[in-house]
Fold:
Amino acid sequence: MLPDNVRDLLSNSLASATKRAYASDLRHFEAWGGMIPASPEMVATYLAHLTIAHKSATIQRRVASISKAHQAAGANNPTKTEIVRATMRGIRRTLGTAQRQAQALLRDDLFAVLDRLGDRPKDARDRAMLIFGFSTAMRRSELVALDVGDVEFTTRGALVTLRRSKTDQEAAGRKIAVPFGRTRHCPVAALIHWLEIAAITAGPIFLAMNKHGHILRGRISGEVVSNVIKTRLENAGYDPADFSGHSLRSGFATAAVMAGASTYKVRQTTGHRSEASLARYIRDVDLFDDAASGRLL
Structure:
C-alpha cells in the first residue's frame, strides 16, 4: 500500500483532463465486460467491438488508457502484444486515420464577426474574448483561466503571462506579446475597454453573465467560449457547425502564416515546440501557393 502523500503526487503527475479521459475510458471498458488486468485477446476483442460506432482516434485513446492502467497496476501490458497491435493496424486501415478538425476562424472572418457587435457589456466582453483569444492563440482553458494579474500593459501593447497550459502542466509558464493593433480592431484596446466597463481590477478577466446581460463575479467556462464563437458567427451570417473553441487558435496560426509571419514567430505565440506540431494547426495554407496545376492551366 502506497502512502497517501505518494498517491497524491502520482495523481498530480497527470493533468486533470487526462485523468478524466482515462477514467471515462476505463469505465467504458469495464461496462463492456473488461477488467484490469486483461488478456491480449480480451483487449483485441474490445477494440474490434469499438469499430461499430467509434473512430480510429477514439479507439487509439482507449488503448492508451488501458495501457496506462496496466502500467499503474504493475501488470503485464496487453496493448504491447502483437495481437493487439495487429488489431489496431487493421482498424486504422479499415476506418482510416483522418481526424475532423475545427474550421479555422481567419482574420477577415473574425473582423466580420466583430463588426456586428454592439455596445452592450456582453458585446464588449465577447469582443475582447474573441480578438484577444485570436491574437494570443490560446486554448479555451488558457483563455478562461486568465486573471488581471497575468496581463501587463506596456507602451507597446500587452504582455501576457500564461502560467499553465496543456503542454506545461508543471507551470513553468511563458509570456505572449500582444502589440497594439494597426487595424480598426485592436486586441489591447478591446481588453482595456472590457476591464473598464466591467470594473474589473483583480481576479478573473472574463466573467460570466446572466440571461439579462448582468455581469456576474464568476469565471466563465470553456464551453462559454465555444458558445460565444458559434453564436457570434451565426449572427454574422456564417454556418457555425464546423467551428469550435479551437477555431481562434487554428485561425491565428493559419492567418499569421498566410500573412507571411515566420513559423518560428508563430510558435512563439502558440507555444508549439516543433514545426511538426504547428503544421497540424495550419489549414491548407500552402496548397494554393505555386500549385503545379497553376503552371499548366
Observations:
- The two ends are 72 Å apart (CA to CA).
- Strands lie at 151-154, 157-162, 174-179, 207-209, 215-219.
